[in-house]
Amino acid sequence: MNSDSVLHAQGAAQFVDDLPLTAGTLHAFPLVSTIAHADIVTLDFTPARALDGVIDIFTVKDIAGLNQTGNKAVDEVLFADKRVVYKGQPIAIIIAKTAAIARLAASLCLVDYKPLPIVVDAREADRLGLHIAPPRSFTSGDIDNSWSDCDLVVTGSAETGAQEHVYLETQAAIAYPLEDAQLKIISATQAPGMVQRICARILAIPMHKIEVDVLRLGGGFGGKEEQATPWAVMVALAANKLQHPVKITLSRAEDMRFTGKRHPYSADFKIGLDKAGKILSYQVTYYQNAGAFADLSLSILERTLFHAGNAYFIANLQATAISCRTHLPPNTAYRGFGAPQALFILESAIFKAAQVMRVDASVIQRQSLIQSGQAFAYGMLAEHAQAVPSWKQLHKDFAISEQQESIAQFNQEHHLEKKALAIMPICFGIAFTAFFLNQADALVHIYNDGSVSISCGAVEMGQGVKVKLRAIAAQIFAIDPARIKLESTNTTRIANMSPTAASTGADLNGQAIRIACEQIKQTLTQQAALELKVDPALIGFKNETVTIANNASDLNWEALIVLAYMSRRALSAQAHYATPKLNFDPKTEKGNPFAYHVYGCASVEVTVDCLRGIYQVDRVNIVHDVGQSLATEIDLGQIEGALVQGLGWLTTEEIIYDQSGTLRSANLTTYKVPDVYDAPDIQVKFLDKGSNPQGIFNSKAVGEPPFMYATAVYFALLKAMQSFRHEYQAEFSAPMTVEKVLLGLHSE
Ligand code: MTE
Ligand code: HPA
Ligand code: MOS
């Protein structure tokens, strides 16, 4: 169970918007651009300022430091200055007595725009030379000379859509002015350290004057890795100026219109295979729609390159990635971080090749799975590769061939309904692709009543990281997890924390907590040995009791802690962890960028109603490699949740921007996320004999990888459509909405 589950069920878990307001709290709302690309000719706040209850309006002129929220590429302004580059871009922040007044005031601001040409499509941006950075390529083998060795070469293109995060808690922050020009910020962010740093940069104050605190998030999914920052900084700026607490919460529709999403990709591929269907060569060019600013686009694109070959060994591979600047809100991190796009595009190529060969895609997939000792295109060796074991266990445990037979039977008996099954192997590298982020700190206190307090950089956003971290500390001290509390994530207790992202929350913070706990445990061992008058080497801990050579003594945890305290021993420890052995050379684009890889394999069965175009995902079977699970229920929940989120991306979730850069799907009535009825029967098994020496207690990270099992939903739908309409030419353009199915089945 998630550590927050009871509070959630009681409605008692606090989110930013639930915090009781301090007297004098003011409310903020941004004035945002109503045009996607324009010069600001004049800006007139007179009518807005005249509104009763409006306190002040701040713009770029009020920034003491740098007007810059950009992180990797420093190209993103907090407030538009003279020019706007996407619709929904903040120009000013309005502060009023109530949120309603602030919103009304925003509508009274007079902005005179001189419109400029708007680009919303990545390929068009590329033609116009609008790039975030120069193109980047990963190459292995000898791609140019490889095609002549292939028995079959197939080319094509594929597209993937954007995806809205739909975290339940929308973007929100409160800033409190403290004495001596200090600030405390409560922010719904995955990256408290980043909020602190960017806030210090923009306000031109040292980081130690800013405390950022996060209790929990109502979901993040990557959407609060970078994009929680501007809202927090805007209220901090206002709180600093006005010396009042200032709060902001976006509505769902505002959040959808103002913030970026998963990057849409467009790609061209060329795939070459031998007679048997083994992939020999793969060449791909990705056009990423970055939106107006870099945000995390280049890191995401880098991960796309790393995962271009998925769980396959492809001897000759060339992947080129182009990040294209458009006039959309900056697209950002979203579960999978560029890998889901890479995997969809490669499966499109495989599907197309399979069609030409008149075999099932699984024939190609199976023969191409990477094996231990083979290298990924970026040079890292696959060690303990679990692609084949996952594939085999899936087929065995879930009797896939029987399922295939009953599907064939069903299709013979039904003419208007068709079923199909597709398989999806996955592989995902664990580590931040940004090397320096692979570090974490922990601070552990044992109070003299025996209760334990742990601070670290992990943000709880529903993924259950705090359950895992508590389990790690409980195991080391051999105490009841109920004695251990995970504190809020706070920049005063933990400095320079990395965002909780890249699925590394439990890995990095768990290792730091382990080291800190082991430090205290050594002290406790000394204390116990002294008290029991035995050699420290004989001392152990079990069931809240000190053991001597594995036999229980009569010294228990609470008594030991009191003894240690009375003997004036340190009952607090701080520790740092940095993932070992990571390296990557950007010149050669080779190295070991990941601590390890996560593997797995899934099968998906769908039924299409070929008269109406509606469909259902019936059954999903998954074998997933969690190593040794740190928390079984949490891992199962992550796998199921990720699968359903991926299913939404590939089926009903359709983000539509029109040519003016206006979001047409700006609320949850026009943007359809999966609900409980869309969730299929999901059966998950952990990979047998899973292990991971590189992970904390042999576990593997789980957060993002299972998202990509859903890729099979798209290809199962294509197969079902083809069994109804044999001449149907598969198109690789996700999401596969009901409209697309219907048109695909019946249009001339
Ligand atoms: N699960 C829930 N319930 N809510 C979330 O916001 N975010 C996902 C994943 N699972 C998320 C989630 C993403 S994008 C990541 S990177 C990981 O959780 C982050 O947490 P971890 O590193 O602790 O796995
Ligand atoms: N994943 C998520 N966030 C990141 C990464 C990554 O690999 N690199 C930098 N920020
Ligand atoms: Mo997750 S996309 O790395 O927050």
Secondary-structure map with pairings?
Elements: H1 5-10, E1 26-32, E2 38-44, H2 46-50, E3 54-58, E4 83-84, E5 90-96, H3 99-108, E6 110-115, H4 122-127, E7 136-140, H5 143-146, E8 152-160, E9 172-178, E10 182-187, H6 192-203, E11 210-214, H7 229-242, E12 246-249, H8 252-258, E13 265-273, E14 279-291, H9 297-306, E15 316-325, H10 339-357, H11 361-368, H12 387-397, H13 400-413, E16 417-430, E17 439-446, E18 452-456, H14 465-477, E19 484-486, E20 489-490, H15 505-532, E21 539-542, E22 545-548, E23 551-556, H16 557-566, E24 572-578, E25 583-585, E26 590-592, E27 596-609, E28 615-624, H17 632-650, E29 681-686, H18 711-724, H19 738-746
Parallel strand pairs: 1-12, 10-11, 14-15, 18-19, 28-29
Antiparallel strand pairs: 1-5, 2-4, 2-6, 3-5, 7-15, 8-13, 9-10, 9-12, 11-20, 13-14, 16-27, 17-18, 17-24, 21-22, 22-23, 25-26, 27-28
Bound molecules: ligand MTE, hypoxanthine (HPA) and dioxothiomolybdenum(VI) ion.
Ligand MTE binds next to helix 15 and helix 17.
Brief overview:
With 748 residues, the protein is α+β, with helices and mostly antiparallel strands.
Structure write-up:
This protein is an alpha+beta fold. The protein has 19 helices and 29 strands. The strands form seven sheets. It has an eight-stranded mixed sheet with strand order 3-5-1-12-9-10-11-20, with helices on both faces. It has a five-stranded mixed sheet with strand order 7-15-14-13-8. It has a four-stranded mixed sheet with strand order 16-27-28-29, sandwiched between helices. Strand 14, helix 9 and strand 15 form a beta-alpha-beta unit. The structure holds ligand MTE, hypoxanthine and dioxothiomolybdenum(VI) ion. Ligand MTE binds next to helix 15 and helix 17.
